[in-house]
Amino acid sequence: MVKSSRKIYAALGVIFSYIVIYSFLHGISTDIPNNYNAHENAIATSSSSDDSKPIIILDAGHGGVDGGCSAYNGALEKEINLSIELSLKSILETFGYSVEVTRSTDTSIFDPGIVGISKQKKSDMSNRLALFNKYENAVAISIHQNQFTDPQYSGAQMFYTETNPLSQPLAQTLQNTFRNKLQKNNDREIKNAGKDLYLLYYSKCPSVMVECGFLSNKQEADLLLSKGYQKQVALTIFCGLNDFIRTNYKSI
Ligand SMILES: [Zn+2]
Q1: CA distance 204 to 78
Q2: What is the CA(73)–ligand 1 centre distance, in A?
Q3: N or C: less crowded end of the chain, CB within 10 Å?
Q4: 141 forms bridges with which residues in the sheet?
């Protein structure tokens, strides 16, 4: 009885996820091209050969003693990053992707026994990079929130490096998806971070850092702190990522 109830709840969960994503794709955005249907595309993806289907690596920035930046009310970036990462993982797995995450709790992932914050930070970044480079065929997304001294600035922005030639088109696809589906007035351009972003610079697979928005902007911080908007951000990243994979991984 218990097992069959669990199965029913699991099935209902999957159906609910489809409904939420379908509503998102067809409800919020009014300018989706006629030939674009990520819902159907994603189902096709999950039923085709997995030979060249990349593993998705998700990184929730910061964690543990490293809170990242903070909002006006003291809320920390690390918590928003984790929430979006876990929502995105759930959506990707619903659509048949294999996903690994750098962290699934509020923790720093430095090696045991390392003492001192700077050494712990170095070990933490090294372990995140090791996961990015663990597989021959992977795509990595690092999730962060932005901050600036002038509170007027808002909007998502993608960062990439030229280490892997597919990182730039991945960043552009994600940036376009944010503009088309979530932030119509977002005129930000993708940015080549060069050596400034260690994780991206040394990552061998296509990798993008998604700065989802500015915690220094009160209006956007309020959105980013709400569970509903965090799920919308996760769905937006999913749509862009799925679009990128269907375009660039030919056997899918
Ligand atoms: Zn950050």
Answers
A1: 25
A2: 17
A3: N
A4: 58, 208
Question: What residues make up the domain containing 130?
Answer: 2-248
User: Distance from the CA of 143 to the center of ligand 1, in angstroms?
Assistant: 8
- Ion ligand 1: residues, CB < 5 A: 61, 68, 144
- Tell me the average pLDDT across 60-72: 96
Determine the distance separating the centroid of ligand 1 and the alpha carbon of 66, expressed in angstroms: 9
- Any idea what the CATH number is for the domain that residue 147 is in? 3.40.630.40
CA 210 to centroid of ligand 1, rounded, Å: 10
Please report, as a single letter, which amino acid is at residue 66. Answer: D
The Å distance, Cα 70 to ligand 1 centre, comes to 10
Tell how far the Cα of 160 is from the centroid of ligand 1, in angstroms. 14
Render pLDDT for 75-129 as a digit per residue (tens, 0 to 9).
999 999 999 999 999 999 999 999 999 999 999 999 999 999 999 999 999 999 9
Contact (CB, 8 A) for 79 and 212? no
Distance from the alpha carbon of residue 61 to the mean position of ligand 1, in angstroms: 5
